[in-house]
Design brief:
This protein is of the alpha+beta class. It has 2 domains: about 220 residues, Bira Bifunctional Protein, Domain 2 (BirA Bifunctional Protein, domain 2, 2-Layer Sandwich), CATH 3.30.930.10; about 50 residues, SH3 type barrels. The chain contains 8 helices and 12 strands. The longest helix has 22 residues. It is globular.
């Protein structure tokens, strides 16, 4: 990317055209039922509440909740997700697993990764800027964070499991909308490509790609998409640092993605509390990309 990006126009970014969004949808079920509010505490929390209060939660499959801002947005590992009303995307979509599906448990760990893959593909094509995935499901442009995904599972009836896929993306945010401590490590699509983007069209395309990925996962399993995720994953091939219990801080080389979506890490000699050279399978940890 050459030169300094132009500052996006906040006035143009603030308007989300819900009717334009509905007209652009190409999905079968995702976002065909939409709840749209200017402000909410958390779109994921709203989705989970709806699932538990509905007399037939299976009917909520594909329901999407959209908001212009979140007052208590949630990130991975209990973190707060900064969610100002600055022309961004905050949404959640519900997936209800019908009773009797024997494959669901095995595929569950892949949902965050392939959700991130769908979002990265969408944003790259819509903006013309290369978007990558930091394992397991953060979105990056270069080494700056563009967005993240939080998947939450709940049991809603006997033998019925629901997954809420929550997505937070910096689309038309300007630099001043980020808290000072986040400005050096965060970015938005508009800041990177120098123009305000049409959130309605992005979101319609995002739900289509997300539905396609989730349908493929359910029908074919993960094998056919692992190579695509690997190509999008900025973590692979990098020196990283993870914090684990009980090993503590571990530094190593991120080598590959394992059969259940785990990160396969080769600890570096003298750089970790683990046995150097032995391949570790990381399933839940904060991953920091190291320079050099």
């Amino acid at each position: 990317m050459g030169g300094s990006p132009k500052k996006p126009s906040p006035s143009a970014a603030d308007h989300f055209d819900i009717e334009r969004f509905r007209e652009a949808l190409r999905t079968h079920s995702f976002a065909r039922m939409v709840r749209y509010n200017f402000s909410t505490a958390s779109t994921n929390a709203d989705a989970l509440t709806s699932l538990h209060q509905h007399p037939n939660p299976g009917n909520l499959h594909g329901m999407a909740i959209l908001a212009e801002q979140q007052t208590a947005g949630r990130g991975r590992r209990g973190r707060i997700w900064h969610s100002p009303a600055q022309g961004n995307i905050y949404c959640s979509v519900v997936m209800v697993q019908r009773a009797g599906s024997s494959q669901h448990g095995f595929f569950l760990s892949w949902i965050p990764l392939f959700s991130a893959l769908a979002v990265a593909d969408c944003l790259s094509d819509q903006s013309g800027v290369a978007v990558s995935v930091k394992w397991p499901n953060d979105l990056l442009i270069g080494d700056k964070k563009l967005g993240g995904i939080l998947c939450e599972q709940t049991s809603v009836a006997e033998n019925t499991v629901a997954i809420v896929i929550g997505i937070g993306l910096n689309v038309n945010a300007d630099r001043e909308s980020f808290p000072r401590e986040l400005r050096s490590g965060a970015t938005s699509l508009a800041l990177e490509c120098g123009r305000t983007l049409d959130r309605a069209m992005i979101l319609a395309d995002l739900f289509y790609r997300l539905e396609q990925r989730m349908d493929r996962l359910g029908l074919e399993g993960p094998a056919g998409m692992i190579d695509e995720f690997t190509l999008r994953c900025a973590t692979l091939g990098k020196r990283v640092q993870v914090t684990l219990e009980p090993q503590g801080v571990v530094q190593g080389l991120a080598e590959s993605i394992g059969p259940d979506g785990c990160l396969c890490l080769r600890p570096l000699m003298g750089a970790s509390a683990a046995d150097p050279g032995s391949l570790m399978e990381i399933r839940s940890a904060d991953v920091v990309h190291l320079r050099g």
